[in-house]
Amino acid sequence: MKRSRFLWGLVLACLAGGGWYVWSSRAGGGGSGSGSQVRYRTSRLSPTRIVQEVSATGTIQPLHEVEVGTQVTGKILELKADYNSLVKAGELLARIDPATYQATYDASRASIRNAEASLASAKAQLSAAKATLAVNESKLKYAIKTHQRNSELRRKLPETGISDADLDTSEAEVEQLQAQILSNRADIEKAEAAIIQSEAQIQQAEANGRQAEANLGYCTISAPIDGIVIARDVDEGQTVVSNMNTSTLFTIAAGLTRIQVEAAVPEADVGQLKVGQKVRFTVDAYPHEFVGSVREIRLDAQSESNVVTYPVIVEADNPRMELFPGMTANLSIIIVEKEHVIAVPAAALRFKGPQNQAADSPAPAAAPAHQHQQASGKSRPDGAPRPEKASPSPSVTKTIWLANDDGSIRPQQVRLGASDGINTEIIGGDDLDGALVVTGIMTSKEAEKAASGSNNPFAPPRPPRGGPGGPPRR
């Protein structure tokens, strides 16, 4: 008997608890009855700042960097510059042992002197050969006339006493002089060839001398530009070898009061970039931001893991030389920046009105499936509407919902402008300043919390100020 009474009491207690739960759910707006009131999440519109940007990472580099090398082989005798040394153009940086190149230069100068002496000798021989040729040619003319006269006299006056031997002698003299003239001409040609050879030797020796002088000059390493030494690759006493490639001794940056950042921007974002756009960037070494501008958008595309990026060069001031070459910079390239504009949250753009409510919201959320298909154009598994893009194009017309004082909502057509992914500008929306825009429908728990005025979603509703039956608190 006692057991049956206990069971009946338990059943009555369960029924009473269930009835209280149904009554409290309907009273809080979370039920599905026709008399329940839908509560909406809202946000107040006010002037704000919209910044649309493209994020990228890059490496800080000097505007101009020069690798100072050597074109000769030898031992480093002296170093005049070290890391972080400030240098001027023409300033001595290092000396390489010049002994070998000095000897080559001296030998080339000696070769020049020998070639010049040979040239002078060849010219003297040429002058002598020409003089001898002139004398022999004169003698030949006289000998020919003498032979012709003797032959004529012998023919006309045999009694003159000119014998055949005399005629043979004069003829032999003519032939001898002709042979000497041929020899003299050969000597002239030989002397002229010697002159040409000596001149060629002089030119070759002078070329060797210039090369030796240049190599001797290369033993003195000077700074090509004004700047700061950011790298030193040799030490005193080290031997540097110059083969096909120039050996690098120093790396000089042309001042670091102005630097550049080479960033890799994905192809999806590079179309929004323009030369001159403002850039904010940070480095891990400092908490504050640095400001620069886009100087160049290069077309040299790079592909890695099927991701195509383009190099974008950002130039910035570095007056305190805080930024060092090689630092990693996190960049925000400003596409659009607007101050004091009325902006609507992204959630308000996704809200489609009373006919599209969440699954745990009151009865108006239970829209038929065909309504979702008509609204989105495609059935979704959870029945939720298709999400909107975070950054709509400028001047797109959209419908937002505004809350009235009596708890109802009304649609409002607006034109959208720039977006930062969180808020979107309303073009010409100054008249909406202070309005409440609907961002969604409250869940049952949110509605209960809003009705009770509790700030803690896990705390029970707060009792009246004076307590049940007690005097009011002071």
Task: Chart the SSEs and their pairings.
Layout: H1 2-27, E1 40-44, E2 47-62, E3 65-70, E4 74-79, E5 86-87, E6 92-96, H2 99-156, H3 164-218, E7 220-222, E8 227-232, E9 239-240, E10 247-253, E11 258-266, H4 267-270, E12 278-283, E13 290-297, E14 302-304, E15 307-317, E16 328-345, H5 346-350, H6 369-376, E17 396-403, E18 409-419, E19 423-427, E20 436-441, H7 444-452
Antiparallel strand pairs: 1-20, 2-11, 2-16, 3-10, 4-6, 4-9, 5-8, 6-7, 8-10, 11-15, 12-13, 12-16, 13-15, 14-15, 16-19, 17-18, 18-19
Helix pairs in contact: 2-3
List keywords for this structure.
474 residues, disordered C terminus, six-stranded antiparallel β-barrel, OB fold (Dihydrolipoamide Acetyltransferase, E2P), four-stranded antiparallel sheet, single chain, alpha+beta
Description:
The chain contains 7 helices and 20 strands. With 474 residues, it is an alpha+beta fold. It folds into 4 domains: 36-50 and 342-377 and 384-452, no CATH class; 54-63 and 253-338, Efflux pump adaptor protein, beta barrel domain (Elongation Factor Tu (Ef-tu), domain 3, Beta Barrel), CATH 2.40.30; 66-97 and 221-252, Beta Barrel (OB fold (Dihydrolipoamide Acetyltransferase, E2P)), CATH 2.40.50; 99-218. The strands form 4 sheets. Strands 2-11-15-13-12-16 form a 6-stranded antiparallel β-barrel. Helix 2 (99-156) packs antiparallel against helix 3 (164-218). The longest helix has 58 residues, at 99-156. Residues 25-35, 357-393 and 454-474 have low confidence and may be disordered.
